[in-house]
Specification:
Length: 112
């Protein structure tokens, strides 16, 4: 009887430990994605910030061999305010099943 109780306690403890480990791996993966995606989005936004966005609407691409799983998309839309454009950079990771999108938005004044 004592051995059965000890085995039950051990089983409950091991299940808890494995769940905790799984959750920490998931959280670490999500944190790695957010860090990488935010830096890539900021880099792409810096490139766009100096371009003439007046006639641009949408474009996209990859980050090359350095970050093969990551893709970027830029969307330029008009706003209610004249001469103000909304620029949105979307970075996605193709390998992640969920929470695989990061968005960065910039509002930029453009000349007539």
């Amino acid at each position: 009887m004592e051995v059965m109780i000890a085995m039950a306690i051990l089983a409950i403890t091991l299940v808890t430990v494995y769940q905790s480990q799984s959750q920490s791996i998931s959280m670490a993966s999500n944190a790695r994605f957010l860090t990488t995606a935010s830096l890539l989005a900021q880099s792409k936004m810096a490139d766009i910030e100096w371009m003439n966005v007046k006639d641009r609407r949408a474009e996209g691409g990859s980050f090359g061999e350095t970050f093969p799983d990551y893709r970027w998309r830029i969307e330029v839309t008009d706003t209610e305010v004249a001469y103000l454009k909304k620029i949105e950079v979307v970075v996605t990771n193709e390998k992640m099943a969920k929470d695989s999108t990061y968005r960065l938005v910039l509002y930029k004044a453009v000349s007539g």
